[in-house]
Amino acid sequence: MLTTQNGLVLRQRSCGENDKFLDILTDGEGLIEVFARGVKKQNSKNASVSQPFCYAKFCVNETEGRTVLNSAEPIRTFFALSSDIGKFALANYFAETVLYISTREKPNNEVLRLILNCLHFLTLGTREPLLMKATFEFRLMSEIGLIPNLIGCCACLKYDAPTMQFDLRGGRLFCEDCIGPRDLSETEALDRRLLHYLRFIALTDMQRLFNLKVPKEYLEVLSGITERYCEIQLDRHFQTLDFFKSMTKR
Ligand SMILES: [Zn+2]
After folding, report:
1. What is the dihedral of CA 41, 43, 48, 49, to 10 degrees?
2. Ligand 1 centroid to 173 CA: how many Å?
3. 90 shares its domain with 196
């Protein structure tokens, strides 16, 4: 049976001399594995759509228990990212993270929207890569149900304070009065601006999400916090992140 859906190629795996398996995040079925026959041949009509960071309308065929690529029409490609090793490394980190959290038959269109938007702005170059990293990491946690409680101090409900402690494992805030004597190795101190940025990324509409402006001096610390939150919540360290850092070390 032929079906059609829009999807973003996140990963390719070589199979024999001419074929590939593609992991595609689709809007209809979540993550799917697609067998792409002959696409490593240069004259294959599906060669260019069978590469990571191609967003296309894929027509696939369910046959003998596997999903086989029939044809595809590109909607938007992000291949230009490969000309900038730092951005390309970041895009690969996004892809690895989404592959890790996505499941088959469980579409999460907000996750697809998020990664498409992040790739779009990375390609366009109008947003700092570190801001896209922080936005991706923290918003992804919101979209998959790991949203922290950022409304106020979890003990006294205070909404605003010069400093709040963000408990990364518990996903909650403590004000300085309520933090008490505790192990602070998995907390981050947030000033008002950092807390505002985190609230904005976690809670604002997707349409407004990319309007956030963060001054350069805050980017590194914001990105460090979202990265730690993501790593602690997912209990996972991504090698593509190490590669991104090694490529962008100053
Ligand atoms: Zn409090």
Report:
1. -90
2. 8
3. yes
